[in-house]
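Same chain as my last thread, 130 residues:
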Amino acid sequence: MRERIEDIPLLVISIIEEIKERENKRHLKVEEAVFHVLKQYDWPGNVRELRNVVERMVLLCKNDALGKEDTAFFAKKLYQRQSSRDQEEGEAEVIRKVLAETKGNKGEAAKILGMDRSTLWRKMKRYERS
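reply #2:
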């Protein structure tokens, strides 16, 4: 799904149709703001995770249209994830700077950073991918 963000609106509408049939729900419209919020996420859990989020929104919806207010629980998750990502980017930058200062000496860098050498290796490997 990460590579096909443009499919999210169609998937959401399809999931809502399934829920309506299963739960005998009324007709639900989806405001564009909902799609905008859902497109902000990278969806590591793929379609199954999207289905869970949409089902929760439908269950919490108090009127005949899913709006931005129905995404509040999800927007909070998005914010927390972004904060975590920002924190990791900052840590990766510090590691790069210390490694540059120590001319790549990982043992010395780990000591300066106050972490075990194996932790430094693990973090370097993880940040190398991001």
